Amino acid sequence: MLRAVIFDFDGVITDSEILHFRSFNQVLAKHGIEITTKDYYKDYLGLTDIDLLNLLVDKGLLGVDSQEMTNLAEQKKDIFEKLAKTEGRIIEGVRDFLAMLKQNNITMAICSGALLPEIELILEEARLRSYFKVIVSAEQVKKGKPNPEGFLLALRKLNEKSRNPIANNQCIVIEDAHWGLEAAKAAEMHTVAITNSYDADQLTSAEKVIAHLSQLNITDLQELCN
Q: What SS3 class is residue 87?
């Protein structure tokens, strides 16, 4: 039985991945680094800010200590927030989909590698915050996706607010990247992939792959959990 839907944020609710990409490149330009669009979507999309910077260090592309890394992450956050206020956009179909879930009494949560202020800013601007009982963001977990920690924490927080506990297999995760799908499967949750960031052939680990949220109705979702 379907009880909850847990959404990734960037690339599922909002089309802000390009804003993260631009923000990182503005900050990294001072260090003579530019991430190409191809490399960003291949290697970095879905990572937390700190994990992305750590990966650049591991690859020998960025030479900074932990304090400088924290400063870079703060600078990136500030740039992103400015861009989000003027260029943030909710993906078409999201509003209707959330309304459908609410009408059917399905609990909703977000589990994202983005920071909480970034998520809250876009949701508040779009007047969508009230749909989500729980938001798990990058700073709340020790290990980001593909580790299942974030999804398990989201479920635990949902159950703190529920008299009737929700089981892992009563949750559907909607993701746009394979890191998130791996994490959801490791959390023993059902998976739907949406092709906003990657082609369908790169998301075959999902139980269902869609191009648009309008392709899903409540019966489709319930069948996944049966």
A: helix
Q: How many angstroms separate the first and last alpha carbons of the chain?
A: 6
Q: Residue 5, Cβ neighbours under 10 Å: how many?
A: 21
Query: Phi first, then psi: what are they for 132, rounded to 5°?
Result: -105, 120
b vs e for 35-67, b when ≥16 Cβ sit within 10 Å of the residue's Cβ? beeeebbeebbbbbbbbbbeebeeeeebeeeee
Q: What is the pLDDT of residues 134-191, one digit of tens each?
A: 999 999 999 999 999 999 999 999 999 888 999 999 999 999 999 999 999 999 999 9
pTM: 0.82
Domain 17-87: which CATH class? mainly alpha
Of the candidates 168, 131, 167, which has an alpha carbon nearest to the alpha carbon of residue 148? 168
188: amino acid identity, one letter: E
What SS3 class is residue 107?
Answer: strand
Extents of the domains making up the chain: 4-15+89-225, 17-87
Q: Which CATH superfamily is domain 4-15+89-225 in?
A: HAD superfamily/HAD-like (3.40.50.1000)
Task: Write the pLDDT tens digit of every residue in 85-116.
Answer: 887 789 999 999 999 999 999 999 999 999 99
